[in-house]
Amino acid sequence: MPKHILILMAMSAEASPLISRLSLTAVAQAPATSSSTFSLPYETYTGSFTNSMSITLLTSGKCATHGVDNVGTLHAGLMTMYALREVQGSDKYDLVLNAGTCGGFISKGCSIGSVCIPEHAAFHDRRITIPGTPFEAYGDGKTHCHTGESGNVTQISSIRESLNYLGGGVTTGDSLDHTAEDMLKMMANGSTVKDMEGAAIAKVCELAGIGYLGVKVVTDLVDGERPAFEEFLENLGTAAKSLEEAVPKILEFLDKEEKAQA
Ligand code: ADE
Predict the structure, then answer these.
(1) For the whole model, what pTM was predicted?
(2) Which of 94, 110, 148, 218 could form a disulfide with 152 if both were Cys (CB 3.0 to 4.6 A apart)?
């Protein structure tokens, strides 16, 4: 059962209300434990939840060139590896919780503000079809979400059922919009929601042997009428407030289960 939780979020606007709600404190400079000379943009916050869980939260920080949040799979993967290798203290993390906004599919029951806890993650824009080889499946990169070392997939379902959140898959790519080919792949991936980080973080977690739990709030409707960016900008603030509510509920669920089993 998780006690040391690593929360990973792409955008500071998504994370700010949650950081305040959990009373997390900014760590001036992430304590590097290797001889890396990289200057990394990730911002680290620490604290605890109900005195029984330690929380470390990282955001992707800003692009030094463009001044915007480092969204997308490149920084998602790098931040995850950085956090798992460099930021953790003497105790290893038990679980990675990836919270953020997403596009949602009306056809899968999403509306603006829906919360999804995906059961699996995959990519929709890595088209590597070379007949007779497994490159296509490699590109799709499907990963199962779970909460623990023993691959506890059922706990994901019980969390979302008890909190009445949506399940299904998160499909990940490096664009806010999508092409017709992306749409085919997103459907083949069994996706309820679409984001720009989930599958990348889940894949690094798989490599590291740690559980990945996604919490995704819908800001825009992928199979709706309007451009994603319009709805995204309109709903980012309320989605961040919704993450501020949803993440503590999930932590509470995990905490209660831990205490029940102690
Ligand atoms: N985050 C919020 N909305 C999104 C979308 N439509 N695609 C990818 N990431 C998102």
Answers:
(1) 0.95
(2) 148
